[in-house]
Amino acid sequence: MLPGSIPPPHRPAPSAGSPASSGTARIIRRGPWRRRDGTPRLPFYARRMATEASQGGGSVRVDAWIWAVRLVKTRSAGAAACRAGHVRVNGERAKPAQPVRVGDEVALRYGGRDRLVKVSAVLRKRVGAPVAVTAYVDNSPPPPPREAVAPAGVRDRGAGRPTKRDRREMERLRGLDG
Description:
Blueprint: H1 19-22, H2 44-54, E1 60-61, H3 62-68, H4 75-83, E2 87-89, E3 92-93, E4 99-100, E5 105-110, E6 113-119, H5 129-132, E7 136-138, H6 164-174
Antiparallel strand pairs: 1-4, 2-3, 2-5, 5-6, 6-7
Helix pairs in contact: 3-4
């Protein structure tokens, strides 16, 4: 051993009756992603999000926040929604650079649906969907039910062109009175 080097950790030899000596010991593998008790550690961004939420979190641009929590598909779509007046923060129309803080209410109209969310954590980077839903409380009304439409006018393949009688029957089933 060289002078100034660190000695290896001392491990006692297994006793004769221990399971480690018989080769049947169960090895528990731990990596940097597990704690000593075996529970998984949170990813760095989730830990940062939790600490920011507890400390007040500062603020972030509204267009970046609605993109980070996956309310819109792209950041440019979030900025376009802000410029079009589809985003409101605490009831006021928001520009893309308006700051959002913990406790603010964000109303968004995107994709034909109104969303009303309350900010519970400030995110600067886009995160996975399971983490993103913890960054806000969704107070949105439920989406309208889809209308149950019967498949009217489905014809067999190779049946040829419909006759005038068939066409009128299909229009009647679709609700089109021509």
